[in-house]
Amino acid sequence: MSIDKLKATFAESLGIPAGDVTDALAYNKVPQWDSVAHMALVAAIERDFDILISTDDVIDMSSFAKAREIVARYGAGT
Amino acid sequence: MTDAPPAVTLADPYSVPQAEREARLLADLNALTAWHRERCAGYDAMLRGVYGGATQAARLADVPYLPVRLFKHLALRSVPDDAVVRQLTSSGTSGRQVSRIFLDAETSALQVRALAAIVQDFIGRQRLPMLIVDSAQTIRGGAFSARTAGVLGFSNFGRHHEYALDEAMQPRWDAIERFVDTHRDAPILLFGFTWVVWRHFLEAAESAGRRLDVGPRSVLVHGGGWKKLADERVDNATFKRRLAERFGLVRVANYYGMVEQVGSIYMECEAGYLHAPAFADVVMRDTATLAPADSGAVEVLSALPRSYPGHAILTEDLGTIRGRDDCACGRKGTYFHIHGRIPAAELRGCSDVRAT
């Protein structure tokens, strides 16, 4: 899985500069990543990586670091 | 000070029999009573006044409880201001005071996970194409109401979310029909508040002569109360019959829950009963004496609230316990029915007892 590609998906979906997308970026810690944005983010990741994420993983995706782990687990390509 | 609140088990909320879940829940609730007394001065003062020093209960019905309207009058919280990540408000009609519930990150995360454990038992683990019977404007900006919390909470179970209503609460028939067509081969999750589904979707379709066929595997989950339907004498059986007739919706599950205990919801099973998950329960109280009874005012218990003292709340609803552990659907624990609200005159006598 390409980290840069996931960064780009995050930046575009949340509307923040790619430079702000670090492992520390966390759900509900920045105004751009609230529960409404979260659903759009999940949809964007599913589209860009062609995967279907489970409910439990949607809930667990609480940071960029966590998202990297989850997307990698789905064996998503670049 | 108690350093950590009790760890709560969320997984498998319906497999544990009543005796076992009650013992676990009682321990959790007693720990939460101590936790909140140490952190919320207003709560501690009330408990001293009403219960004296003895607040560790020997059974669920003895856990100190607060009347739900107290949350309309007092800002009760057990965390510092800067730990509050969200403030929920009840969707009370205009002119009436609303409840204010303060959530920190931990309680908020627990609510999300608890809701997932409950709902997955009914609809499965796969996220389903989701038709939200509300308008997109409901969840944008402003106050975080029970309706917003409900829509957002349930959105985790959906994908390809579509809103069935426009900003004027009129059905977007073209979008709805396109959505149903696109997902014809998959079960669809429909979600909405009970009166919104009834007034703005079902009745709207009936008066416009519209029909849908969502297929036998699709499921509607709805909650938020029956008051407006009861006013027009529409009961659950009638509601279900009309939904089946108009939309081909045969799987319909109501849920009972409140903004004061988000995450702890009581889902209606296939046999038509509301079920308590293992981390929550209900106690019915005689409306005159407040003694535990089979039928009466509904008290809700939940092991989730950490940031506000809402683990035991006497509601203004009426209900009847129908049984424990032996529901035809196979789920363990308490199952019950809700009958409506306590008439206004009667409830003054009952809830002010604990408020003063």
What does this structure look like?
Chain B: Pfam families: LuxE. Chain B: Residues 58-353 form the Acyl-protein synthetase LuxE domain. Chain B: InterPro entries: ANL_N_sf (IPR042099), LuxE (IPR007534). Chain B: This is Acyl-protein synthetase. Chain B: GO terms for molecular function: long-chain fatty acid--protein ligase activity. The complex is a heterodimer of chains A (78) and B (356). Chain A has helices at residues 3-14, 35-49, 55-60, 64-73. Chain A is mainly α and 78 residues long. Chain A has one domain (3-73): Non-ribosomal Peptide Synthetase Peptidyl Carrier Protein, Chain A. The longest helix of chain A is centred in the middle third of the chain and has 15 residues, at 35-49. Chain B has ten helices and 15 strands. In chain B, a hairpin with a 6-residue loop joins strand 11 (280-285) and strand 12 (292-293). The longest helix of chain B is centred in the N-terminal third of the chain and has 22 residues, at 18-39. Residues 347-356 of chain B have low confidence and may be disordered. Chain B has a domain at 112-256: Rossmann fold, CATH 3.40.50. In chain B, helix 1 packs across helix 2 and helix 7 crosses helix 9. With 356 residues, chain B is of the alpha/beta class. Chain B has helices at 18-39, 41-51, 70-73, 105-123, 146-155, 173-182, 194-208, 227-231, 236-247, 344-355, and strands at residues 66-67, 84-89, 100-104, 128-135, 158-165, 189-193, 219-223, 251-256, 266-268, 274-275, 280-285, 292-293, 295-302, 312-324, 334-341.
CATH top-level class of chain A: Mainly Alpha
**Number of E-state strands of chain A:** 0
Number of helices of chain A: 4
Beta content of chain B: 15-25%
**Domain module tally of chain A:** 1
Per the principal axes of the C-alpha atoms, what is the gross shape of chain A?
globular
Order of helices and strands of chain B: HHEHEEHEHEHEHEHHEEEEEEEEH
Count, helices of chain B: 10
Q: SS-based structural class of chain A?
A: mainly alpha
In the predicted model, the low-confidence regions of chain A spanning at least 5 consecutive residues are none
The averaged pLDDT of chain A comes out at 91
**Overall pLDDT confidence of chain B:** 91
Determine Rg of chain B (CA atoms, Å): 20 Å
Reported by name, the CATH topology of the domain at 112-256 in chain B is Rossmann fold
